[in-house]
């Protein structure tokens, strides 16, 4: 088919008016006509490549609405940990399958998905969306680091054994967050498959830096409630990010998630240390949990590579990349849609290393095509291809 629209975004920029795209039956883009095409079918609104959701937790989909808004991160995490198993297996399965299908309907073509166990193997076998599974490793005691790592490696191996001829299935073992992973565990994770990207929940709450600077604050409450003895932990006197970045191999690609409290010095430290760093924004989850947003203008001014995530249904009302960038537009109206759509598509594809197939409208690629209606009021995404 050949289609055109009011505006077409190719993943990086707006294409000239009149541009028409030819798409084969299997979804591959076979031609781009910059001066239009007489047989092109006109579609109202905006066309973009399929969205990339860099950060999600499909395994937590059954937690929708369970934790109230604006509790702050530490009570939120306690709520998730103590209540995530108050559900039947059937409730969990139904909720995550529904979440997967909704993301697909919302125009998402690839997802970076956190997994603590193997619950989401069944979702990857649906083979609609490309999936990079971030197998999350948690363990704050140095002494248990080898056991915690071995558990995660067992989970990783089950994901790695899964193959598809239709979609990309990738995986890596990743640290959960600076306050839940010891230095010893960071190092074990970092040595595993060092070319694969890792993600980390970064500076989502002021309590995280506070704990690293002088070991005070609400992280202690979290560790106490989990009966974790943190007596071995010595504060560095620096922010969490400035501390743990030195534990990572500079060649390891890293995507930092949330960054609600990240400052310019943190960013500069990462840029000086890491060859490839990416900054994933999940604004609706930040508003849900902490009711604050990252310093997005600073990240942009300093040349950070930004991408978008939805986080989970435990901390969000929906799983929609478009809803995330609409929130950014509302709070930072100076950011152009051209830029926001790039974060939502080609930047995410680059982070998940899937840019050879998705994230941009280019001949030979198979990005899926999404229609956006009412971009400037209440944007709504519909899948076209
Ligand atoms: Zn998360």
Can you give me a brief rundown of this structure?
It comes from Taibaiella soli. The protein has helices spanning about 75-85, 90-105, 120-125, 145-160, 185-190, 205-215, 220-225, 240-245, 265-275, 285-290, 295-300, 320-330, 335-350; strands at about 1-10, 20-25, 30-35, 40-50, 50-55, 110-115, 130-135, 170-175, 200, 255-260, 275-280, 305-310, 370-375, 380-385.
Description of the molecule:
- The protein is α/β, with parallel strands linked by helices and 385 residues long.
- It folds into 2 domains: 1-49 and 359-385, Urease, subunit C, domain 1 (Roll), CATH 2.30.40; 51-358, Metal-dependent hydrolases (TIM Barrel, Alpha-Beta Barrel).
- It is 33% helix and 21% strand.
- The protein is built from 13 helices and 14 strands.
- Strand 13 (369-373) and strand 14 (380-383) form a beta hairpin.
- Helix 1 runs parallel beside helix 7 (219-225).
- The radius of gyration is 21 Å and the shape is globular.
- It starts with a strand and ends with a strand.
- Bound molecules: zinc ion.
- The site of zinc ion (ZN) has 6 residues, from loops.
